[in-house]
Amino acid sequence: MRDLKRTNAKQPAYRLLAEQQIEVFTPMKWTLVTSRGKKVRKEVPFLQDLVFVHDTREKIDPIVAKCPTLQYRFLRKTYRKPMTVPTSEMERFIHAVISSESPRYYLPEEITPEMYRRKIRIVGGPLDGYEGSLLTMRGSKVKRLLVELPNLLTAGVEVSPEYIQIVN
């Protein structure tokens, strides 16, 4: 879904939906914000207008009707067909992001083919059984597994080198 409220809104859509007991996920990042003249570390959404909601249309439609800044994301070249992510893919993505202290998010256009050459499998640890690409960045000492929601968002999740198994 899309949240069209300003970045400094008191009640963004992800909080509004969570208060109404609707399962919601918003990719968050830490940033420094100036508040009353002091710099404060605050967790803010990675993409301001991106909200993943897991519930039925019958429960979400009345909320969307009441809140003009909350909208469905529609697929391109279709007539009002909402964008959906399969539950298994979303649960896999959320689990990977939650298991990491500092996930990095990337938009599809930010990732180049040179960044994800090697295919890996995680053996052991919190991400046991995950398969994906190893993020390669010059100068980085941290190994990251790329977990992707196709054509939408990719998360780079820190992985200990002892859990990495290269797949051919």
Describe the structure.
There is one protein chain. A six-stranded antiparallel beta sheet has the order 7-11-10-9-8-12, covered by helices on one side. 18% of the residues lie in helices and 32% in strands. The protein is an alpha+beta fold and 168 residues long. It is globular and about 50 Å long. The model has no long low-confidence stretch (mean pLDDT 90). The protein starts with a strand and ends with a strand. It has three helices and twelve strands; from the N terminus they run βαββββαβαββββββ. It has helices spanning 13-19, 57-66, 87-99; strands spanning 2-3, 23-25, 28-35, 38-45, 52-54, 70-71, 104-106, 119-122, 131-135, 144-149, 153-158, 164-166.
Average pLDDT figure: 90
Uncertain runs with pLDDT below 50, 5 residues or more? none
Gyration radius, in Å: 18 Å
Number of helices: 3
**Helix and strand run:** EHEEEEHEHEEEEEE
Q: What oligomeric state do these chains adopt?
A: single chain
Principal-axis shape equals globular
What is the topology, as strand order, of the major beta sheet? 7-11-10-9-8-12
First CA to last CA: what distance? 37 Å
Task: Please tally the β strands and state the result.
Answer: 12
Q: Mind summarizing the main beta sheet?
A: 6 strands, antiparallel
Query: Percent helix among the residues?
Result: 10-25%
Global structural class: alpha+beta
Strand coverage percent: 25-35%
